[in-house]
Design brief:
single chain; mainly beta; Porin; eleven-stranded mixed beta barrel; two-stranded antiparallel sheet; 1 helix; 13 strands; 7% helix; globular; DUF2490; signal
Length: 261
């Protein structure tokens, strides 16, 4: 039988671990933004283990207004088995000044990454572990450039609410926490905490609505005999996402509705 108490303990542990790892408290903010995510996904099939996806994303500084950011990315995946997938991908990320879009981008980032995804199943809880290594090239306004590496780890939980597994007609909950590590510092660069609800309309269409808090951390410093501790700044965002799957052949295997972002 599905034990809801065990689920709540897992969720509380996930959030507590995130806060403990950060070792700092986010500056309070009442500002809300909006993330729009549209994904076309081609899962692996019984006849081939190859797959891929493309995604477009737009973000606004306010709720449905003050657009300032977009992403365009895609990748190729290969399923080593049903629960192990590797991927290589690339993307373009543009940040603008929402107060004056006519001045052009503040920076444009080109990114390449390598990724490993492991899936686990415990009763009705699905766990997704995602490990990602990124190489990032920045072009800033003013003709300055920079290169950075970054490592990301995301633990994503999916819980089907009205059926034993996720399929057509399933309402599901999704919760994840993702940490971003930067070898140049701050080592703990960012934390992303998400909670949302989704619905699978058919094998092809899945939609989710949720909340994400993204908190960025600055590095501690000691200059001129003055110590500056880690400072964090967080922001809440409404997330609206739609996934369309390209189904090549009949595939009865359960597909986790993971956001590739």
């Amino acid at each position: 039988m599905f034990d809801t108490r065990r689920l709540w303990l897992l969720l509380i542990s996930l959030v507590s671990s995130s806060v403990a790892f950060a070792q700092t408290v986010s500056q309070p903010t009442n500002t809300w933004g909006t993330w729009f995510i549209g994904t076309v996904l081609m899962p692996a099939s019984p006849s081939t283990r190859w797959g891929g996806y493309v995604e477009v994303q737009a973000r606004s500084n306010g709720v449905f207004n003050q657009y300032f950011y977009n992403e365009l990315k895609g990748g190729i995946s290969y399923d080593l088995d049903r629960n192990v997938q590797v991927m290589a991908a690339a993307g373009r990320y543009q940040t603008n000044d929402y107060q004056d879009l006519s001045t052009g981008p503040l920076n444009v980032e080109k990114r390449v990454w390598e990724q490993l995804v492991l899936n686990q199943y415990l009763d009705r809880i699905r766990f997704e572990h995602r490990y990602r290594l990124e190489q990032r090239w920045f072009d800033f306004r003013g003709n300055t450039t920079e290169f950075r590496n970054r490592f990301r780890y995301r633990l994503n939980l999916f819980i089907p609410l009205n059926s034993p597994k996720i399929g057509t007609g399933t309402v599901f909950a999704s919760v994840y926490d993702e940490i971003f590590l930067n070898p140049k510092g701050p080592v703990f660069e960012r934390n992303r905490l998400y909670g949302g609800l989704g619905y699978q309309f058919s094998p092809r269409w899945v939609a989710q609505v949720g909340w994400v808090n993204q908190t960025n951390y600055s590095a501690a410093s000691f200059t001129q005999n003055q110590f500056t501790p880690i400072v964090s700044a967080g922001k809440n965002n409404l997330v609206l996402s739609v996934i369309f799957r390209i189904i090549r052949k009949s595939n009865d295997a359960e597909q986790l509705p993971s956001q590739p972002d």
